[in-house]
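Input record (one chain):
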Amino acid sequence: MKTAITPIAEYDKSNKGTRVLSKYENDLIFEQPRDNLLQQEFKSYEYTVHGVKVTTTVRKYKNKDYFDTTTVQFIGS
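The corresponding structure, as predicted from the sequence alone:
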């Protein structure tokens, strides 16, 4: 059973641009929805005892909302 995460974000507009203050980790990486923004992607590579672990997180934007997905794969050994 999947548990939905509902981000609670504050917006700090005091500086140039908009900064999101959130407990939802992906909000610290990705932008909030804006016109013409379709998708953003973040990849990390790390060595493990099982090979190189590649973690890919993608945020897709649609209708002023977004949906995040994360995939993990191992390459090499």
